[in-house]
Amino acid sequence: MIELEESMAEESVAITDMLGCGLLQLAADDDIDTISRAEGFKVLFFSGGKSRRSDAHDVAVALREILKDYRGRVRALLVPGDDNPELSARYRVLATPSLVLLKDDAILEVIPRVRDWADYAGAFQRYLGKPGVAGTETN
Asked: Which InterPro entries does this UniProt record tie to the protein (predicted)?
């Protein structure tokens, strides 16, 4: 676990920050499937590992702000590793970094690569309503 955390620190300060403050949870492959089937809204962050370091950092910065806005309403999981073809296929990830938005056990949307802030904010608002306003979920 410590070795994995050290490799994450090399990837992105934003990822390390989210892991440290509890906004993002590092999950093993087995945990991801169990958690993704649980009730509630989740986001899986496929960072792409070291090969996608710069892009992953950009996505992580946006994700960190969104998770702060929706604190307590979203469970965020980091999918570690450079290449995880089985999980990528299962969650429809064709490019990294990607955010996979899930509700209960359904994939709502996959947001690939680096996007504008409005794309990320719009996706979360589409499914969760306005930031900070519990009970406004639309799906």
From this structure: NiFe-hyd_mat_HyaE (IPR010893), Thioredoxin-like_sf (IPR036249)
